């Protein structure tokens, strides 16, 4: 009997990788710490780059991709539209990040900005794989066997033996820490975000587009910025909520008791207070927000020096945030993680399952594009968000 490929974590990268195995009828098991897919808030909306979309399409195939693409929102406009927070006036169209840090347009396919919420994306990737996911399994590490590997859980129990293990459990990955001997590090760069949602009626004053609002006047020594995407096809549906992300440079947004796991009213009240002096065109985004959906978000990043080297282990590797955490600046993080899933999935499918040499080939190729993506993400975050520099004194997760 063929041993399954073990996957730690049930996030986007892990589930897209699992779909590649599923289509090729290669057995696998996913171990996820949450009790179910709806256990916690799914976070902000993702902008999918052409590289991210290509990766998804290569895994899902033509029919599966069309179903996925139909669920995505498509917004016109080639860049962020700047809005003055105090006058409400619409300014220039910026490039790939506010303010015009990049001249790259946001367009990714069909002349549109393509996006989808993390929750919707995760549900689509999970469809049909439910019986292969083991919920409420907190991964603590792994142990190699004579000709396989087992996952070790926080309660001391172990998984069945697998042919290989792929760690995809995010920036606090235990698999990543063990595999790299601590070489993979993620740094807290001081920027804090609040994610919020409001009914479509709150966005009527903005109209269609991807908007960037930057306030450098209200907070001496710091700034507040908001990014939101208003999609025309859902604009008139009062049952739909659009999201926004409010960010603050280091020291501007402070969660109660420094607890960034808090959700709901405390986060909502801080978002409202930080935008209290803004124009009436923008106020509904915060005044009408669904307070229970508000959530804090710590911005972290891997070293801009690139994905480090570690002694290759043929049966264990890592993907996504577990190996290259990024800031949301430039939209690089999720799209790079999806590239990992497609690449590793393709190598395993072409080999018909686990073969020695796969993890080495994957890591060699991944390090090149992921290191460049991390560097770009870090540089844009410094210019756009005013993030702290990463050096020997920067705290790690």
TrEMBL record:
Its cofactor is FAD. InterPro entries: FAD-bd, FAD/NAD-bd_sf. The keyword Zinc does not apply. One of its GO terms (molecular function) is monooxygenase activity. It comes from the Eukaryota. Pfam families: FAD_binding_3 (PF01494). The keyword Calcium does not apply. Gene3D superfamilies: FAD/NAD(P)-binding domain (3.50.50.60). Residues 132-376 form the FAD-binding domain. Keywords: FAD, Flavoprotein, Monooxygenase, Oxidoreductase. This is FAD/NAD(P)-binding domain-containing protein. It comes from Periconia macrospinosa. The lineage of its organism: Eukaryota, Fungi, Dikarya, Ascomycota, Pezizomycotina.
């Amino acid at each position: 009997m063929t041993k399954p490929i073990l996957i730690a974590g049930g996030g986007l990268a892990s589930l897209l990788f699992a779909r590649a195995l599923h289509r090729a009828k290669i057995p696998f098991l996913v171990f996820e710490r949450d009790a179910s897919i709806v256990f916690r808030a799914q976070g902000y909306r993702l902008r999918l780059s052409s590289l991210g979309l290509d990766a998804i399409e290569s895994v899902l195939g033509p029919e599966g991709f069309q179903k996925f693409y139909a669920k995505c929102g498509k917004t016109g406009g080639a860049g962020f539209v700047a809005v003055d927070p105090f006058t409400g006036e619409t300014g220039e169209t910026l490039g790939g990040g506010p303010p015009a840090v990049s001249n790259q347009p946001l367009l990714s396919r069909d002349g549109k900005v393509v996006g989808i919420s993390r929750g919707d994306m995760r549900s689509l990737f999970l469809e049909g794989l439910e019986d292969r996911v083991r919920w409420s399994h907190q991964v603590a590490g792994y142990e190699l066997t004579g000709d396989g590997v087992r996952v070790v859980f926080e309660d001391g129990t172990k998984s069945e033996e697998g042919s290989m293990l792929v760690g995809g459990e995010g920036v606090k990955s235990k698999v990543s820490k063990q595999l790299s001997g601590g070489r993979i590090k993620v740094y807290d760069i001081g920027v804090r975000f609040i994610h919020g949602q409001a009914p479509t009626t709150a966005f009527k004053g903005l109209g269609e587009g991807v908007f960037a609002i930057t306030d450098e006047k209200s907070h001496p020594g710091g700034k507040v910025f908001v990014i939101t995407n208003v999609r025309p096809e859902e604009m008139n549906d009062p049952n739909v909520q659009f999201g926004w992300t409010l960010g603050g440079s280091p020291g501007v947004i402070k969660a109660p008791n420094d607890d960034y796991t808090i959700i709901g009213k405390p986060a909502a009240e801080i978002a409202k207070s930080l935008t209290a002096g803004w124009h009436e065109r923008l106020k509904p985004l915060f005044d009408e927000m669904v307070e229970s959906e508000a959530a804090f978000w710590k911005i972290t990043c891997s070293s801009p020096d690139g994905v480090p080297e570690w002694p290759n282990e043929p049966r264990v590797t890592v993907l996504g945030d577990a190996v290259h955490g990024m800031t949301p600046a430039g939209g690089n993080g999720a799209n790079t993680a999806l590239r990992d899933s497609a690449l590793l999935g393709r190598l395993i499918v072409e080999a018909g399952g686990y073969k020695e040499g796969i993890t080495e080939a994957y890591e060699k190729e991944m390090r090149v594009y992921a290191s460049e993506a991390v560097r770009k993400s870090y540089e844009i975050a410094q210019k756009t968000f005013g993030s702290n520099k990463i050096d020997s004194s920067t705290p790690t997760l």
